[in-house]
Write a structure and sequence with these properties.
- With about 150 residues, the chain is an alpha/beta fold.
- The protein has helices at about 40-50, 100-115, and strands at about 1-15, 20-25, 25-30, 55, 60-65, 70-75, 120, 130-145.
- The strands form 2 sheets. Strands 1, 2, 3, 6, 7 and 8 form a 6-stranded mixed beta sheet that branches. A two-stranded antiparallel sheet has the order 4-5.
Length: about 150
């Protein structure tokens, strides 16, 4: 399971002209589920993201996690995070999980974040979404549950 985690001032998801998820300060997470992922991957990544110290403290040092900063999380399913663009110019998505498995693990991930005390907003799984965000910093972190990077 991979995630692109962005610290944002605000973020929202719009589908067919309607806002379906929206946060103020917090984290925008693009989540990509791989075909070999399991519930443990979702739980591990949720814990990592919830405890990621990328928010400034009183001395403007990145020492606070999203909860400590009073932020929320917007999670957007994005199979393209599993893209492999090492060869040629067209990425392949062979490692992405099939939709049913991906949806179950996406829901598990969101539930795990909620269980850690975070307010979680969501995009709509498999929908064409317009994601609006104001990146704060900019701070963008790439995570992989298999620790590939």
């Amino acid at each position: 399971m991979r995630a692109v985690v962005q610290r944002v001032s605000e973020a929202s998801v719009i589908i067919e002209g309607r806002v379906t998820g929206e946060i103020g300060p917090g984290l925008l997470v693009y989540l990509g589920v791989a075909d070999n992922d399991a519930e443990e991957d979702a739980d591990l990544l949720a814990e990592k993201i919830a405890r990621l110290r990328i928010f400034p403290d009183a001395d403007d040092k990145m020492n606070l996690d999203v909860s400590q900063s009073g932020g929320n999380v917007l999670v957007v399913s994005a199979f393209t995070v599993q893209a492999d663009a090492r060869k040629g110019r067209r990425p392949t998505f062979d490692s992405a999980a099939p939709p049913a498995a991906a949806m179950a693990l996406y829901e598990r991930f969101c539930g795990a974040l909620s269980a850690l005390g975070l307010r979680v907003e969501r995009g709509t799984f498999r929908a064409r979404m317009n994601v609006h965000s104001i990146n704060d910093g900019p701070v963008c972190i790439l995570l992989d549950s298999k620790r590939v990077f």
